[in-house]
Amino acid sequence: MLTLAEHWRVVDLLSDVHLRADAPRTFEAWRRHMLGTPADAVFILGDLFEVWIGDDACAGDFEAVCLRVLQESARTRSLAFLAGNRDFLVGNSLLQAVPMQAMSDPTVVAGFGTRVLLAHGDAWCLEDREYQRFRLEVRGEAWQRRFLAQPLAERHRAGAAMRAASQARKRSMPDPALWADLDRDAVLAALQATGTRTLVHGHTHRPGRHDLGEGCTRWVLSDWDFEGPTPRGDVLRWSAEGLRRVAMVPA
After folding, report:
1. Partner residues linked to 217 by β-bridges
2. Which member of 108, 163, 180, 233 has the greatest number of CB atoms within 10 A?
3. Phi and psi for 142 in degrees, rounded to 5?
């Protein structure tokens, strides 16, 4: 369990920014938020990057710029990171270079007189059996050791191929309502096991607030995309008044 510092008044929760070099408006919205938010801490719940092929990727121009934004933000507020399905290879080298605290998935966070369960969310999309098999493989130590042992150029090619496969799968299901959502029973079981009543997660790109019954609530974070005609992106701002959604404004 992670306990918020007593002097903190505001914590921002965000996920699914999907930073990539060919999405400059999204990067700028994220940069402005990370450097200008009034929050005492920012908790990133996965998929900060569109793809992450290892911490040595920070040698790349775009990744180095992202690292500098994180480092500058960390000078005035605390940062924490929980891996998603796109950036599960973020390692200790990056976390220490920021610095940014690692969180397990899920993590119970206590603060403002309550306890909240934070997660990326993909582990509970149980209907997507193909993805769950893939997740089990790539989250394994053996797979990650083999992948990270490859030259950086090969990992770039593999990362591009995985991204292309993911995009093709999305195009085959153009209606987001067809994408697998979190399994309600699995979520309720996780809340009960951790002694919490509120879950905050990302992954599904379907922002909302859901009453799960039994006094439990599920908040879904937005993904970020400021490249198209309908810009979107928000954070959940957590304070003593509770959780509220704050929309990001395009640059």
Report:
1. 198, 211
2. 233
3. -65, -45
